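Re: the 155-residue chain
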Amino acid sequence: MVILGNLRRLSGVEFLKKVASGAFPPPPMAELMNIRITEVAHGRVVFEGTPAEYHYNPLGTIHGGMAATLLDSALGCCVNSCLEAGDLYTTLELKVNYLKAITLDTGPVRAISTIVHIGRTTAVAEARVLDVNDVLYAYASSTCLLRRVSPDQRP
């Protein structure tokens, strides 16, 4: 897989910047959920999405899974932005607090994620979902397991 090969040969921040710029295609899940990475820096990542009717739940609001996907994507990529080429991560825990319902009237939302801790084997990140007026809709934290490669194994 071309994407996986690029992920392993570039640092996390280099890889994510290429996705954000369009040099690499977004993951299929991002296309499915209509979310995109818009900002990348070491230890900080922003994803944006615009709620659509297909995100609605039976209660007449945007399904919490849309916000959770936006948050999980931002959190994981934030951790990835701190990793060297060849290092990998996986989510161990995702904790989401829903604070306000998202609807079509909410308009575009963004998940801003920052690193809380990056260690040898685990990382912790936090993120917030905000609208264009900086109204807070959801908050999340994530713990990720890291698999680091030794310097002599780096591409």
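The two ends are 16 Å apart (CA to CA).
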